[in-house]
Design a protein that fits this description.
The chain has 243 residues and is an alpha+beta fold. It is 24% helix and 22% strand. The chain has 5 helices and 10 strands; from the N terminus they run H-E-E-E-E-E-E-E-E-H-H-H-H-E-E. A 4-stranded antiparallel β-sheet has the order 1-6-7-5, covered by helices on one side. A 4-stranded antiparallel β-sheet has the order 2-3-4-8.
Length: 243
DNA sequence: TATAATGTTTGAAC
DNA sequence: AGTTCAAACATTAT
């Protein structure tokens, strides 16, 4: 369900609860629920795919993983991992990872690595890529310490747009091309956000889960690539392999 | 019914 | 000691 842009939407949808007191906190997550009940929810933040619920002195970190779901003022039959009840409604999370982070959030997160954050820093990303010339670009794009928020859809769409083969080695890709990849990453991520809001994300896929290249009409290759072995959809003819 | 899918962490194995 | 890898988690649609 979630790549970075989807978590931005999640945050927008729950803004109504910011500043409100928690009446009760419950669920199957192995955290101390007593820490939350009665406290005032200061703010919601996001870092890539991490959804952050901030309180004075600590933060609840939610990661929706592959199948995570959240419901606002609704419940499933299934017991939630975390359920927060406010004076103006409730927020329920299912099938996700829930953790409690103590203290200052800044000690956990590098905000310049989050593609959706205002502090995103392309130069910092470029520097990090230079340190791993032997890695494949398909793996690097999924590296959350470099491109926090990028997932398999964004990876595939970006590489198709810039015409780079997913198994290309970072050190062999020309510098201007690296710059282009980073730039396109940001451009596509915000288009993802836009299209997701309009509920038309899949309509615009040119690579992800596609069968044919719209540029040359040849069949796409589907292959688990890199050390991460995540599915890549690409055109052998249009996407150049740097090796 | 088996499979695959927008993901990460953990700990064993090498 | 550092890396690699499979397992675990869990849900829904095809």
């Amino acid at each position: 369900m979630p790549e970075g842009p989807s978590i931005i939407i999640l945050r927008e949808e729950v803004m109504q609860f910011e500043g409100h007191k928690i009446f009760s906190a419950s669920g199957s997550a192995k955290i101390d629920m007593d820490r939350i009940a009665g406290k005032k929810l200061l703010s919601f933040k996001t870092w890539g795919k991490n959804f952050l619920i901030c309180f004075s002195g600590f933060t609840i970190k939610i990661h929706l993983l592959m199948f995570g779901v959240y419901l606002i003022n609704k419940r499933k039959k299934l017991e939630p991992k975390l359920s927060l009840v406010f004076d103006n409604g409730e927020l329920n999370f299912y099938t996700c990872s829930v953790k409690l982070l103590e203290g200052d959030l800044n000690q956990y997160y590098d905000w310049t690595a989050d593609i959706m954050n205002e502090n995103w820093d392309s130069k910092a990303a470029k520097k990090k890529l230079e340190e791993i010339p032997q890695k494949m670009i398909c793996d690097a794009l999924l590296e959350q310490d470099i491109f926090s928020g990028v997932g398999n859809i964004i990876k595939n769409e970006v590489l198709y747009r810039v015409k780079v083969h997913p198994e290309s080695l970072i050190g062999k890709i020309p510098k201007p091309k690296i710059t282009e990849i980073i730039k396109e990453n940001i451009i596509y991520s915000f288009q993802f956000l836009d299209w997701k809001r309009k509920n038309e994300l899949a309509k615009h896929w040119l690579a992800y889960s596609q069968k044919t290249c719209v540029r040359c009409n040849l069949p796409f290759v589907k292959k688990d690539t890199g050390l991460k072995k995540r599915a890549s959809f690409f055109c052998n003819h249009c996407q150049k392999l740097y090796e």
